[in-house]
Structure formats: C-alpha cells, structure tokens
C-alpha cells in the first residue's frame, strides 16, 4: 500500500507516521547517491513537497507548527534545486529538438546543450555537497521530532484544510488565466500540487472520484512542463544568438500546454469554494460516520 496515505481514522497518528516515513525516505535517498546515480535528489525533493502538503493541513489549527515544518522542508528543497534546474533544461531541450521539424537551426540546440554539459561537473559537485548537508539536517529533524510533542489533526481541521487548498488552487487558476504570466502559472502549479497530494492522503479513508484524482495529476504534469519551459526561457536570455528562434517555439508550446490545463481546470474547479465545502463534508460523513 502507498505509504503516503492515511490508512486509519486516527488522523494524528497517521499524520505523524507519514511525516516520519517521508522524512526517512528522503534521507535514505540522499544517502544512496553517487556521482553517477543522482536520481535520489529528485526523489528527496518529491518527499519534501509531500511533507509540505502535510504541514499545510495544520495551518488553521496550529500556525506555528505549520510555519516551522513548511519553511524547513521548503529550505531543504531549495538547497537541492541546482541539479534539478540543470537537468530540466537538458530534458526540455531534448524534447524541443525532437519536435522541432526544422523550425529552429540544430546548431542552436547544439550550442545550448554544449553549454549545459560544461556546467555539469560543477553542478554535480555542488549537488553532492548540498545533499550531505541536507541529509544531516534530516537526521537532526528526526531526533527532534521523536522527542517533541507530536502535532495533532482531527477531521474538522483536515476538511477545512482541503477546502482551503481547493479554494486557493481555484483562485490561482483564475489569476493565471487572467494574466498569462509565467510566475502566476508556477504558483497555480504549486497550489494544484499541494491539493493533489492532500487528496492522495485521504484516498483510502474517503476516496475522491477517480476521474478527479487522475485529472488533477494530469493538470500538475501539464503545468510542470509549462514551468520547465519557463526555466529554459531564462537560460536563453544569456545566449543571445539562440534566444529568438527558440523563444517563439517555447511560446507556442506553452500556449498549447496552458489550453490543455485550462480545459481540465474547468471541470476540476467548477464548484465555488462554499459549494465544494458542502459537497466534501457530506461525502466525508457519509463514508466515515
């Protein structure tokens, strides 16, 4: 069974089990790294996103614990971002090259890929150093967590948090649709991802409609691809000769991704927040008396 799921109705115990399990998993991933096997960094950062989604459940009832946990795992994730940014640009370039169809001179791709390759050794060295530091901090966190008073969570707090996550994701979608700004789209992606993770947490106790969960996962993937292109755009501004041709292709791809994401959002966020609150509460109490 997926460990990132509340498996019993004792929500406090499940919250604490998931926090410990995800923290241990992140640490194990970082301890398994080698200079040629760095996938553990990406897996650790996924754990940090899940942990932040967990701590966001506490926001309305225990703001101090929420802030401490959310900030701690946010900062750890940022320390590991350098490798992710470099690899995202490489993967995105490969994808654009494959779908190029002669729109951009292949020399442009060669130039950018060569530039990223030159950065790779330094990036790997920094990633390994930061990973060791983060692993040590996770060990310290685990010791503190076991000795401290454990956070508590009940159904009312959980449901309020889910409604809030839905409302924020819905609002961020509206803002991104209005502005078309990359930063707004990135914020929408983060909000949607936290909401998706939180729905996964209750997927055994109170299963969301399968179509809803699948569509939300697809939405996060589309917005992730959109953001990867935005990261690449920043890199292109440093390479004047490569910028203009690829910027046009990137803009076209981003528009396509946004249209697909917007279509999904129309069904995912069709309810107003107060209507969603009523629907979710009734569903919860019908399944969990």
Please characterize this protein's 3D structure.
There is one protein chain. This protein is 80% helix and 0% strand. The model has no long low-confidence stretch (mean pLDDT 90). Helix 6 packs antiparallel against helix 7 (182-201). The chain is flat, with a radius of gyration of 21 Å. It is mainly alpha-helical and 289 residues long. It starts with 10 loop residues before the first helix and ends with a helix. The chain has helices at residues 11-31, 39-56, 63-79, 81-98, 106-147, 155-179, 182-201, 210-236, 240-268, 273-287. It contains ten helices and no strands. The chain has a single domain (11-287), classed as CHAD domain, CATH 1.40.20.
